[in-house]
Amino acid sequence: MNCFLKIGFIAGFLAAVLAAPLRLRGQESPYIVTYGHYLEEPGSLEVEYFSTLGTQRGGHDFHAGWLELEYGAKAWWTTELYLDGQTTFHDSTVFTGFRWENRLRLLQHEHFINPVLYIEYEQISEADKIVKEVEGHDVEAGHGEPNAILRQGHNHELELKLLLSKNLKGWNVAVNPLATKPLLPSGPWEFGYAVGASRPLALKASAQKCNFCRENFSAGVEMYGGLGDTVSPGLHETSHYLAPAVAWNLPAGWTFRVSPSFGLNDNSHRLLMRWGVSREFSGFGEAVSKLFRGRP
Amino acid sequence: MSGMKTGVLVLGGLLSSASLILAQADDSKARKSTDARYDYGELSKAPEKARSRRNPMAADETAVAAGSKLFEQHCAECHGPTGGGGKKAPSLVVPEVHEASPGTLFWLLTNGVVRRGMPVWSKLPEAQRWQLVRYLQTLKMDPPPAAAPEAK
Predict the structure, then answer these.
(1) Domain A2-293: top CATH class
(2) What pTM did the predictor assign?
(3) Across the interface, do A110 and B122 touch by the CB < 8 Å criterion?
């Protein structure tokens, strides 16, 4: 029965994705860690895959990947499910957990600075290496143990971020302070940050549809790191990264991102080479609704 | 092991609530489209300073074509391919939009109508929003309904 339920769920999901019309999209930011204040369009599903190839001193290099299913529930609310996994070279491949993220727009109109509240529940093992954010005293040495040992530790965490973002003369500037509370096992609040700035290569759209127009590319830079915890706040025993980033928005609806993250101190991985691909399915909510209610 | 079970339960709960959200969010949109008329009152909320802004793309020869492309990419899904309206969003070929100043349309694009489902479009650079405004102002108004032929 369980097997039928699983197959039914997957078949339903795929049917809804296939039934959702593809639209031309674009203008995705190049950020991989930092968030701006833009949410998913209502009813749209964005399917994203990201990959991180990381160097590891005192252990084996790794390749961590995560799948994101991002849905615009309302114009002011985006909800997102992450599924994480990793392969540590000369070791093993493991599924490391899931995250459920919600972003809520706090103000109706655009303002000088636009705040969005980010709330995430995570259930991940200590073998998780996607380094989607850095918090507390996260350091490279924490990823050096074999997977068999790391997998024994499981974390249930609540993560809060305040996403502050502003557009100015074509630039987007975003600042994301974050606080994480380990729920099980309980631990002190941990803090971190991510900041970013990005800009499309051209501000005006060209009159023709094109793959290589400058307006389809945007570039920027991110910086992110940990700020300690309530027991031991500050920069000691923390890691920090600087990451140039480029996004290419294809008119066919695909977006590609590339971003090498360079460690800024001895506690950081020397290099986290990231890339990602995403595609948006507009009208996904409507397609799901039809599956439940039938066509009118 | 109990942690694993908790995780499975939590994940199941999340997926179930997500399904409900998906269905309900869309259902509310469908209701709006069938039994409520849209008003264009949001346009009147544009501040005077925003209304009086001039379109810097007014003299740009390619602005309408570029705006048409942007409309197809970002607006047609909800407002229909010709701007005539759809299930989720109102017609743009109505006097309220036709007579709105470029600054008013730019303000609405920038701020959206978030509580009614229109996202903010400030993620498009200013120049592109002005190109869209140029295109919106070229949309032809729907002709008034023809008078019924008199009975002989």
Answers:
(1) mainly beta
(2) 0.84
(3) yes
